[in-house]
Amino acid sequence: MKLKDIKSVKNLNGKRVLLRLDLNVPVHDGKVDKDGTWRLEKVIPTIKYLVGKKAKVIIVAHLGRPKGIEPEKSLLPVSKKLSKMLKKPIEFWADDFSDYEQDSQEMSSGSIAMLENIRFQEREEMDCKRLAKRLAKLGDIYVNDAFANSHRKHSSMHAITHYLPSYAGLLLQAEVKELSAVLKVKSGLSFIFGGAKIASKVKLIKKASKIADQVLLGGALANNMLLARGYKMGKSLVDKASLGVAKKLDNKKIYLPLDVLVARSPQAKIYKSVVVDEIPANMWALDIGPATTDEYIGILSSAKWVVWNGPLGYFENENFIQGSKEILKFLAKSEVKVIIGGGETVELVTRLKLRDKFHFVSTGGGAMLTFMQGDKMPVLEVLKKK
User: Which of 7, 161, 338, 374 is deepest in the core (most CB within 10 A)?
Assistant: First the structure.
């Protein structure tokens, strides 16, 4: 997929560029969490490019899923953090964006402004042309660099392209390039899937089992698969509504845990390892066990490419990231090209200080899954080169 490249615009000097970013980072007590800065780092190259070309950059972004105006979901802390990282002032436009049309005209070339959380606008998630038309009055050009939100047909992602010349930013192009490339790998490809909901990943698991050599499962997603195959899962988290789907995922390329770490609750400090056909009725399966970890590492030792989305254990408790941790450390030392995606997986990689050890870290979770399973993404379709 080739997208219209912002670099193809010959003259950006003095042009107002509406730059749609995904700045959905964790904010507590009015400050961006340390683990959230990686997403901000990803958008900096596009901002610097536009500033270097003397454009007037107006950032449009969202934070969380507010219902109306929720002060704790203001983008002000994000604008302050991004300004510090860029070492350049960002003017924050806190009121309704329609009040800033004159301000957008009067901005100096190479300066930056940021709108308040676009999801404070109640019609943002409706792909509303009326809202998009109002928003377009602030810009001369639209640039989408929000890959992680590109599976959502929202007003500032899709409808806006009806009113302004529209292009892909540097990050969006990199995401599409890297994910497209891995789908063309002919051999030596492995997928790792964890997390909770099998329904959101079933289509990609099916596709992965056709194009990859192996598909390794963990987390609550694996619990569903084990339950569907007749294993008793005790109190483990399962999605019973998806059992029918899990039963249909019967492929020799799909690997399930041999053993698991079990405990009396997800918050437990005491746990033990058991084989999957001996899970106690009063316990939860919360991580892959050591035998499974060894088997998965053995399988991955012959891989050339690995795509990983979702932790293999209960991410919220340090005791149950052991399997994921060991496999990540192995991959970080290997020559395997690894693509990491999904918020919790990236957070874990960041926590382990391994993010720079991998070939590519995607900003997308759901968007990554949607793209790789081959579903059309209207937000990307409108940016395609014709």
Answer: 338
